[in-house]
Structures are given as structure tokens and as C-alpha cells.
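Q: Could you fold this chain for me?
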Amino acid sequence: MRGLRPVEQHALGGGLRGAVDTSLSQASILIVDDDSKSLLALQGLLQSATQKVVLAKSGEEALRCVLKQDFAAILLDARMPGVDGFETARLIRERERSRHTPIIFLTGAYEDLHSVFRGYEAGAVDYIVKPLVPEILKSKLSVFVELYNKNAVLIREIAERKRAEEHLRKSEENLRALAAHLQSVREEEWARIAREIHDELGQSLTGLKMDLTWVANRLSGDQRALVEKTKSMFGLIDGTIQSVRKIASQLRPEVLDQLGLTAAIEWHAADFRKRTGIRCKLSLPSDTLMLDRERSTAAFRIFQELLTNVARHANATRVDVAMRVDSGALVLTVEDNGKGIAESSIYDPKSLGLLGMRERVLPFGGAIEVAGVQGKGTKVRVSIPLGLK
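A: Sure. Below is the predicted structure, expressed as C-alpha cells.
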């Protein structure tokens, strides 16, 4: 390549037109030409504080350059000995790293139309005919440099966002793992307290009742005041024994550990019906469900919370409960005929009951769906995959 038109001194020393963010790393422009004088002239024209120029004297050298770094644009002489500009452009386009790098061909005015088409087929985005007009060259390159810088900013922002998302995901996983661990520890503690209440207080109250029976059998018929007092004490002891059993069952129902989830749901539904007067219609599997302790506990605690919500908020007279295994997941559905939950309450962060239920199924990859119809009731569907954690 030969020939630059005379330009004013400020044009030779200036950078590309347009504002460029100098906080970015410098954009690079690759100039490929077998004429050393042309290379030096273009370097002096294009080199600036915001961009640097890389020189290559042959197609082979240009290919080595694009393997080492990325370029905002490539100025490529069409006619060079050895690997010419057309073949160099084709090879540059074949490499993944440089596939989309803009290539501008530098060519003589004598180039025929066929050569121009050949250049575009090889991947050129533009042609500049010699002798060059510096202002035109710098103007065209400024567009590609600006695009390169904006793309660099976008790539950096995407990378930062991905890192932030990954950090957030790991934080959520850690929080959920901690919540699951705390829940497991809490369940174990409740089970231990339930056993101690049942064993220690239960045995003590039973012994007290036996001692009171011994005393009552030795009272004479004319000691009516003492007889009535012992009867009152028997009633108080029996009531305390029932309270102890109730507290222990609420902490950790024995039926869940001994007979399984189906029996525990039947027992709790019957107790709920007795306490609230709300009818419960159950549709439960006849076969024994083979569930691990963690899933059984999660499903039962969610069922407890759902019935508690019905009693507190629904104003319902009937609850339909269905449980089945479907597509490798335990599906528990609870539907009432109450006033219906408001849509705004379903994802309200203050709805701690729903939040707690969702947290219980997350360790298993489960889900909870809540739907309410005003004046017709609320339906909750709980799904807990039966696969391993």
C-alpha cells in the first residue's frame, strides 16, 4: 500500500473522532501492509492515548496477532505477496476469536469490481481506496472503536452481574441449608422434650395417681370431705395427664414415628375436628407410604400449619384433604370452603406461615401452590419429590 494525502499537523497527531471512555483498557487496531512506510504513516495517524496500533507486515504475521489478542478493527492491504489480503481475511473469519472483528480493505483505485466482491465475500465490512483521506479513515474507525468499547463495557457488566447472581445463589443456598439444619435441630429437640415430658411427667403423674388410689381405698365412709377431695384430685391428675399427652403430641406426635404420615394425618384431622367442629373429609392412600423421616416431618408440619390457618382465618365449615403419590412426588392438597385468601397475601413477606411452609419443601426441591377465590375458599397444593436430596 502506498500513498497518504497531505494532512494538517493536528490531524496527524490526533486520535479518532468521538468521545471515548479513557477508563477502559485501550482498544487496539491491527494494520496489515507489506509496505513499511505505509505502516509507519498509519501508526502515526492512528496511535493515541485511547487506542494503540499493532503492525503486521504480512498475512502470516497478522494471523499470529489475532491469535494473541482482540482488535477493534483490522486495516488490511488487499494486495500482498504470499498470503494476500483476501486469504488472510478468510482465515481470520474462520477463527472463533476474530470471527466478528471488522475488516477494512485498503486497495488501489485500479481494483476491479470482481476484486471488490471478492473482498466482501472474504469478510470485509468496508473498502478504502488509496490514496487515503485521513479524516475519512479516522471517522470510519472511530465507529468500530466506539462499538468495541461499548461491547467491552457490556461484557464486563454481564460478567459482574453473573458473579453477583452466583454470589446471591450461593448465599441463598447457604441460608436454606442453615434453615434446614436449624429446622432439623429444632425437630430433634422437640422430639427429645416430648419424650422427657411423656416419660418423666407421665410416670410421675401415674405414680401420684396410684398413691392417691392407695389413700382413697383406706378412707372410711364417714370421711366424706376427704373422699370428695380425693375425687377432685383424681380429676385434676387425669386432666394433667391429658395435658401432658397433648403437649407431647404437639411437640412430636408418636403416631408419626410409629405408624407413619398417613396415620398421623388421620389422627391430627380427627383432633382438629374435635377442637374446632370443622368437618374434615380425607382421601388418603391405602398403602403405607415409604417416606424418610425428613419428608414425613415436613409434610406433617405443613399439614398442621394449613389446618391452623383454616381455624384462624378461613371461617370455613369443611376441609377436604387428599394425599397421593404422583410422578415420583408426594402431593398433599388441602381445600376449605372459607372466605378465600386474598392474592396479595399469597406472596406477602409478612405471611410467615406460608413462608415457613415454602422453606420446608425447598430442601427437597418441592413447591407449594396457593389459590383463593373470594367467598369460595382456599386451595393449597404441596408437592415434595420422593427422590434423594
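A (continued): The chain has two domains: 9-158, 259-389.
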